[in-house]
Amino acid sequence: MFATIVSVKFIGLTAIAAGAFEIAHAFWTKGWGGFLWQIVLGALYLAFGLVLLAQPASGALILTYVLGAVLFASGIIRCILSFAYWGQNGWIMLISGAFAVLAGVLILFRFPTISDWALGFLLGVDLIVHGLAWLRYALQSGRRTA
Fold first, then answer.
1. What's the rounded Cα separation, in Å, for the pair 61 and 65?
2. What letter would DSSP give residue 70?
3. What is the C-alpha to C-alpha distance for residues 61 and 111, in angstroms, rounded to an integer?
4. How far apart, in whole angstroms, are the C-alpha atoms of residue 22 and residue 29?
5. What is the DSSP letter of 33?
6. What is the DSSP code (8-state) at residue 31?
7. Which terminal residue of the chain has fewer beta carbons within 10 Å of its beta carbon, N or C?
């Protein structure tokens, strides 16, 4: 639960920084066109960041839904890519993709009951599994070139 709150606050601060930069960038590049859109986008980033900082529980719910959708989509893509790289230990990427799909489905369909801890826990586990898959792929690639 602590990792979820920290994640929400970090993303909120990042959104505020991005919003401020977007607004400043709009004024620096006023002649480039799209000035109004940059101001609106910057204001939306700022508002989103402030909501995340002011109400981290609500922000965690929103971010958990987004995380579920992203995990599901990236898991599907990893599963498809695993068959293209099957000769280079694609089975590890398949396991990583299957875990991401499972985590995405869990988040999207059991959302209210697991939202307190899901964001931090599942993101951490997914990053570890995905990182291990890429490390294994890199080690295999290094052995073939040496």
1. 6
2. H
3. 8
4. 10
5. S
6. G
7. C
Beta carbons within 8 Å of 118's beta carbon, 6+ residues apart? 4, 64, 67, 106, 107
DSSP per residue, 110-135: SHHHHHHHHHHHHHHHHHHHHHHHHH
Note the pLDDT of residue 145: 61
80: which 2 tokens? Answer: 């498809």
Tokens of 5: 């709150």
pLDDT band at 6 (very low <50, low <70, confident <90, very high): confident
Contacts with 77 (C-beta within 8 Å, 6 or more apart), sequence order: 97
Q: Tell the residue number behind the tokens 């890519």, with chain if given.
A: 81
- Rounded to two decimals, the pTM is 0.55
Per-domain residue ranges for the chain? 1-54, 56-146
